[in-house]
Every structure is written in structure tokens, then in C-alpha cells.
Amino acid sequence: ILDSIKVLDFKDLTYAKNIVDVGSGAGFPAIFLAFLLEADFYLFEPNSKKNAFLFLLKSELKLKNLSIQKSKIQDSNLNIKADVISSRALMPVKELVNLCINFCDKNTIFALYKGSKIKDELKGCENYELFSFEDKRIYCFLHALI
After folding, report:
1. Which of 1, 34, 68, 72 sits in a 20 to 30 Å window from 82, CA-based?
2. β-pair type (128-133, 66-69)
3. Contact present, 34 and 41 (Cβ < 8 Å)
4. What's the CA gap between 146 and 142, in Å, rounded?
């Protein structure tokens, strides 16, 4: 849980109206951020069991600001622009940005929960910030490449 919300120590995301979480799995980080931020959250999780678990969490925790999508982001026809796109160690940065291009505009920030290889993934990228927490997690904030 701490890992999910630690990003808020490094970046103010309270301005966000729409936050997209890609590969939501068991809900980390989106579920815990949804308690702290007033944004509308769009969670993308194509796995049926994980998706059902997310629906259960939404219901039990009464998180009305969650919209759970049972699809991969690249297969979605949802028409929103995200202020923030989050992902927790799902895939390399450039692949993720390419998959999310329809959800981005020039103001979109990617909040990525990554590990020690992040600098390799960012080669050729500009306009990013890195923060670390106890040498366990690196948080990357990357401005959309539009």
C-alpha cells in the first residue's frame, strides 16, 4: 500500500481529473490512490479473475470513482484523455507509451512504478523525473511524447 501512494510524496497529482491505470492486476496502485485523489480512475485489466477481484474491491470499498475495463488498453474504444497514466512494472516504457497514445495529450504524465533497469528503458526519452524509495522502487514521471 505504501508503495502505491508513495508517488504523492514526489508529485502533486491532486489536479488530475482522469487517471488511467494500465495492467491493474490486484489494484496496485490505483485502488489506494483512489482513496486519496478525487479523480476518476479507469483501470484496465483483461484477466477475468483479476477483473472480477477489482469489481469486488470497488463494490466492497464503495469506490464510486473507479471504472473497471475488462480489456487491454490498446483494444479499448473508451474516449478520454488522461491527466495521469499509471502502471506498475507492466512493460518497458516506450512500449507502454505507444499503447496509450490514444489516451494522451500534451499534458499527460506517466507515473510509472519501475525497478533498477529504468534508466535503460528511458534511453532516448526526454522530460522525465526519477525518484527512489528505500532503494526498492523507482518512480518515474514522464511527460507524454506527443
Report:
1. 1
2. unpaired
3. yes
4. 12
109-114 β-sheet, strand order: 66-69, 40-44, 18-22, 84-88, 109-114, 137-143, 128-133
How many whole angstroms separate alpha carbon 4 and alpha carbon 30? 7
At residue 10, the 3 state secondary structure works out as helix
Distance (Å, whole) CA 100 – CA 94: 10
Between CA 28 and CA 20 the distance in angstroms is 12
The residue with cell 485489466 is 45
Task: Collapse the DSSP code of 136 into the 3-class scheme (helix H, G, I; strand E, B; otherwise coil) and give the result.
Answer: coil
Q: Of the candidates 6, 30, 5, 11, which has an alpha carbon nearest to the alpha carbon of residue 19?
A: 30
The pLDDT score that the predictor gives to residue 146 is 59
- Tell me the whole-structure pTM to 2 decimals: 0.95
Q: In one letter, which amino acid is 125?
A: C
